[in-house]
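= Tokenised fold =
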Amino acid sequence: MLKPTAYTPAKAIPFDKIKSASDKNQWGHFYIDDYRFECLWNRPERYLNQLRSFAGVITPDYSVFTCLPEAMQIWNTYRNRALAYWLQSHDIPIIPNVRWGLEESYEYCFDGIPKGSTVAVSTNGCLRSPYNRSLFRHGLEEMVCRLKPAAIVNYGSLSKGLYDFVLEQGIPVYPIEHYHLTVRKGGARRWAEELAEVKVSSVVRRGAGPISIKANRISTSPEQTIISRNWKKATAKAF
């Protein structure tokens, strides 16, 4: 079981960018394609000092795609939690990442995460269709019910009204801008515009009170689609 944490970072950088990053006053994250951080699972000690040099780490996010066999989803959930425990045992500040799939995954996807902790989630690829949005919303409701988090850190774009039921329960939500918006021309303006539409209380913006969230479409990357299909083919005979 992980220890509860209470961090609310304002910035985060993907694991595959940390080696070249000069700004260490931010958190590392793993909301990227799995193959980009498979090396951490294979040789975690090799990256320990690099991760230590940052403010903290949002724990790994190995995929639990709904098209994967359940055994693979359980295995990836285990890897997410095992590396989180390893990082925390080496005194690295962490925020537990929570990832779920279909309703069946609720039986194991929340295991090992303490109640009353700050947790992190990502909407990347989860709001691209009404079906995906529904999966995310139902899992979010189940997570809040089971874990009763002290706060939720959301990485990526937000959809209007998505977190209203969370805030109604007194749980603050802290948005983190997607890394690519921080490096692309006009990205900062786009993020500021998204957070500036004040209509209903939905999330917490540091130092500015409650704000609203603008609906935004997010598509699963081609790499994610290819990886999902390959995993399904490769494991079809084994399972």
About this structure: Residues 197-202, 205-239 have pLDDT under 50 and may be disordered. The first helix runs from residue 38 to 42. The longest strand covers residues 118-122.
